[in-house]
């Protein structure tokens, strides 16, 4: 049974404060705006629906491969991916700080696509 005491309540309040501050970070604001622009583009959304519906046939239909390339190189998709990565970096840094406050021996996997991290990275670090 969990015993709720003053320390647990204080920790819960600190978590709420961190979340409130996190939501107001410029990276999160940029992400939210990029997500809105991404979702507002009805032509892009139609293309994504078509590609997702036909994903099993992409190897056999060159026009689907071309559509995939068109989507990947779309400015709104690119802006959203950059914004997602920026938010992931901030989350990673926060997680790292929390882990280091406990122990320097806690490994944090930073599988950030634009940072070059990978799930195998920890095996290659010295």
TrEMBL record:
Cross-referenced Pfam families: Com_YlbF
Question: Domain of life of the organism in this record?
Answer: Bacteria
Q: Which InterPro entries match?
A: Com_YlbF, YheA/YmcA-like_dom_sf
| The protein's name in its UniProt record | YlbF family regulator
Species = Lactococcus fujiensis JCM 16395
């Amino acid at each position: 049974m969990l015993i709720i005491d003053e320390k647990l309540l204080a920790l819960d309040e600190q978590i709420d404060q961190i979340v409130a501050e996190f939501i107001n970070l410029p990276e999160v604001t940029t992400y939210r705006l990029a997500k809105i622009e991404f979702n507002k583009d009805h032509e892009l959304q139609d293309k994504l629906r078509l590609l997702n519906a036909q994903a099993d046939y992409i190897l056999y239909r060159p026009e689907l491969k071309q559509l995939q390339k068109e989507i990947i190189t779309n400015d709104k998709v690119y802006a959203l991916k950059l914004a997602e990565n920026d938010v992931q970096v901030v989350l990673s840094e926060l997680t790292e700080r929390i882990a280091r406050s406990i122990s320097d021996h806690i490994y944090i996997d930073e599988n950030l696509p634009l940072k070059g991290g990978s799930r195998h990275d920890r095996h290659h670090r010295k």
